[in-house]
Amino acid sequence: MKTQIIKVSTLVLIAMTNVTLANAATQNSNLELDSIIYLEEAEDTSLSIDTEAYLPEDFNPYADPANFEHVSYIEENQLNIDLGFNTEKYLPEGFSPYPFFFDIDSVKYIDENDMFELDFDTKKYLPSNFNADTSI
Q: 136 in a domain, yes or no?
């Protein structure tokens, strides 16, 4: 009986020592943010030209388009530009630089006054005394 108590006590002592050492190791690792070295990619964006001369005075590249109807289209006569060599040899078969990606007229807008039926009963998933209007 005494040997079993000694064995169990020894195992408990070893387990407590391991837990204490693990906690001490995690608590002593003080990480300073200033010690972290960040690698920054150098941005070399010098165009060596004055781009303002080629842009409108009120140009803002981050502005949202005011109206989608003001899209600039390429006319048919602008598609046939003579470069002095045959580009078909260097492009894949059937290549078109002006593919039709998106039809703006196909967008279906949702009126904010429309009511939607989701066919989903939330009462099945909420507690019986649930009230969304109460504050926490």
A: no
